Amino acid sequence: MVMNKFVFSKKLFVFLLSTVLLFSLLIPSMGDPKVVNGEALVYQDPNAAIPDRVTDLLARMSLDEKIGQMTQVDRTFLNSDNDIATYYLGSLLSGGGSAPTPNTPETWADMYDHYQSIALTNNLSIPIIYGIDAVHGHNNVYGATVFPHNIGLGATRNPTLLNQIGEVTAKEVAGTGIDWTFAPALSVARNERWGRTYESYGEDPEIASSYATIIEGLQGTNLNDPSTILATAKHWVGDGGTTGGDDQGDTQISEQDLRDIHIAPYINAINSGVGSIMISYSSWNSEKLHGHDYLIHDVLKGELGFDGFIVSDWAAIDQLPGDYASDVRTSINAGIDMIMIPDNYVNFINTLRTEVNEGRISMNRIDDAVSRILTKKFELGLFENPYTDRTFTASIGSQEHRDVAREAVRQSLVLLKNEGNILPLSKDLNKVFVAGKNADNIGNQSGGWTISWQGTSGDITSGTTILEGIQNTVSPNTTVTYNERGIGIKSDYDVAIVVIGERPYAEGNGDKQGSFGLERTDLTLLDKMKRAGVPTVVILVSGRPLIITDQLTDWNALVEAWLPGTEGDGVADVIFGDYNFTGTLPMSWPLTEEQIPINIGDPQYDPLFPYGFGLTYQP
Ligand code: GLC
Predict the structure, then answer these.
(1) Which residue of 165, 521, 528, 548 has the fewest C-beta atoms within 10 A of its own C-beta?
(2) Is the model's pLDDT at 35 over the cut of 70?
(3) What is the number of the ligand 1 atom nearest to the C-alpha of 281?
(4) Cα–Cα distance measured from residue 171 to residue 395, given in angstroms and rounded to the nearest whole number
(5) Best of 181, 234, 282, 314 to mutate for ligand 1, by most ligand atoms within 8 A of CB?
(6) Quick one: which of 490, 517, 513, 489 has its CA closest to 501?
(7) Which ligand 1 atom is at minimum distance from the Cα of 453?
């Protein structure tokens, strides 16, 4: 019965079509506008003005949905991935080393997409924003391009290079789906005893001020561009000025000095449109920054007009005086918009809800915070394109990107001594001896914030060590002998290249309150070299100047390489003369421990090497 069959199949078709349509409305997809009463919701309309989208969405949100947007959780502390939806979480982060297993660009992108898919199951389908410390490249990801740490970039004095580094870093971060880096640090390190000195561009705010270009590299001209990510200027404010270089300590200076030295770099950062700012653990004249209403609300948001959102540091509000409710109330009322909890998010959410319901935090303050956060999510295009754009995944660790890092290594090197112009070395030397704990150790040459939070010695990621760079550069007729402890050195070697300095550390673990000289291991090695009577070129791989006055006389040449990252071959490029030295000191180099802290402009300024010092090859 042709007719009946036709009627039957038509009914079936209508039923199937309506089922599909119904499902398409229920399952959130990549930003298809929801339709209510025949019209798309404004916040879901990519053609609507962002302020209108924010206003529309805010009006649809419950208090719990708003509180969720202000809550940032480290992925390792999720009790269940579904809590992302249950608690309407607005942000996740990977703290240092918080990586998927195995650690590959693809698994990072899959992880990000997994979390995002859960977030979008929410009634309003608000995507998460995912943050990470990509502070010298996408340094948590195995195989990513890892650039010199900031102190080495400070030695380049090259804002254009910083812009390029921002662009490359953004592409590699975006290739894993992640939307937001907690960088750049605009710390002005005034005391090299501080464990985060290497995260600073230098002791004078002029360098950090000129490096707002990295923000433009990271964020591009349009955050909607899939190859760009949100940047964070940190840590507001005075993190590098604490007494004694005590990490998270107290910056005891006048307001004028705070403004001239530590606030100064934020002016260009804000003018460059930096999307977020992270608050410092430290205090200013004994008042914790995380509760500082004047410096956050009045100065940063008011006087300087910062219109992005402010994020706390890791569990930093817990350090505020008073109980947890007081911590929450004080920090949010001071103007912090998102709290990096990062663990006990249920307690935070319940506490914040109570503070609002009992009138100790106003709904205006909540709406201001959530509006700032949503504005960046709309600008990033997360509502339209919430998932990883895999076109950038393949660029992670690419030769093109590594070439930028290698150029950064070259420009970061500072030549401090070159007796008899022993450098540049000939590529045709007969016998070269290489020694030292940092010669063949990509973990040591990358420093902290590399694959793990503290960094690790050893073969922790891909790249070239300084030794490999030397081996790749000399002629086939040159014999390169390597022994970390210098065993085998003899007087018939043409030169000994000794690569020494510091081992990886991060944050307070790097605070150096005791002796500021070289490690015993290095001193023992140097004695061995001296006894062999071989001309010695010392390459110092360190996150800061060290006291080397007594040993310097025994060295024919000294190169400060800072923490060069994965492209160690950039060092050989310069010491064998393919490129000239251009780097200059971003930190004054103390003559004695007693001089620390020593900064350009100090009275009786008498360093071993002054701020801005650096030799070059003479033609
Ligand atoms: C750390 C650092 C901060 C970092 C944050 C997230 O404690 O102070 O620079 O962005 O936690 O890892």
Answers:
(1) 521
(2) no
(3) 8
(4) 7
(5) 314
(6) 517
(7) 12
Residue bearing the CA closest to ligand 1, atom 10: 182
Q: What is the mean pLDDT of residues 129-133?
A: 98
Give the whole-number percent of the chain exceeding pLDDT 70: 94
Residue 1's pLDDT is what? Answer: 32
Index of the ligand 1 atom closest to the CA of residue 94: 12
Q: What percent of the chain has pLDDT over 90?
A: 93
Is residue 570 within 8 Å of residue 469, measured between CB atoms?
Answer: yes
Q: Which atom of ligand 1 is nearest to the CA of 133?
A: 10
- Going from N- to C-terminal start, the domains of the chain cover 1-53, 61-395, 413-595
d(CA 180, CA 303): 25
Give the strands of the sheet with 276-279, arranged side by side: 232-236, 276-279, 309-311
Enter the tokens of residue 370.
């959530």
Confidence of residue 618 (pLDDT cuts 50, 70, 90): confident
Task: Give the residue, out of 133, 136, 242, 311, with the most ligand 1 atoms within 8 A of its beta carbon, to mutate for a pocket test.
Answer: 133
How many angstroms is it from 279 CA to the middle of ligand 1? Answer: 10
Residue nearest to atom 1 of ligand 1 (CA): 314
User: pLDDT at position 27, please?
Assistant: 40
- What separation in Å is there between the alpha carbon of 167 and the centre of ligand 1? 22
- Tell me whether the CATH fold assigned to 61-395 matches the one assigned to 413-595: no
Is residue 235 predicted with pLDDT exceeding 70?
Answer: yes
CATH of 61-395, one of 3.50.50.60, 3.20.20.300, 3.40.50.720, 3.40.640.10: 3.20.20.300
Contact (CB, 8 A) for 230 and 380: yes
Residues with CB under 6 A from ligand 1: 95-96, 133, 182, 234, 313-314
DSSP code of 519? -
The CA–CA distances, whole Å, from 231 to 216, 487, 560 equal 9, 47, 29
- Residues 239, 282: Cα–Cα separation, whole Å: 6
If 0-12 CB within 10 Å is exposed, 13-18 middle and 19+ buried, where does residue 220 land? middle
pLDDT of 2 higher than 50: no
309: tokens are 């959102």
CA-to-CA distance for 256 and 267, rounded, in angstroms? 15
Residue/partner pairs of 363-366 with CB below 8 Å, 24 or more apart: 363/63, 365/332, 365/333, 366/63, 366/66, 366/67, 366/70
> Ligand 1 centre and the CA of 95: distance in Å?
7
Residue 241, both tokens? 């000025």
Q: How far apart are CA 420 and CA 403, in angstroms?
A: 31
Question: From ligand 1's centre to the CA of 613, what distance in Å?
Answer: 31
Give residue-wise pLDDT tens across range 209-230. 999 999 999 999 999 999 999 9
With a cut of 90, say whether residue 430 has pLDDT above it. yes
Rounded-to-integer distance, Cα 391 and Cα 76, Å: 27
- Work out whether strand 283-284 and strand 287-288 pair parallel, antiparallel, or are unpaired: antiparallel
Average pLDDT of the residues in 292-321: 98
Domain at 413-595, CATH from 3.40.1050.10, 3.40.50.720, 3.40.50.1700, 1.10.340.30: 3.40.50.1700
What amino acid positions are annotated as catalytic residues?
313
Tokens 């950039």: give the residue.
Answer: 570
What is the distance of C-alpha 218 from the center of its chain? Answer: 11
The Cα–Cα gap between 314 and 332 comes to 15
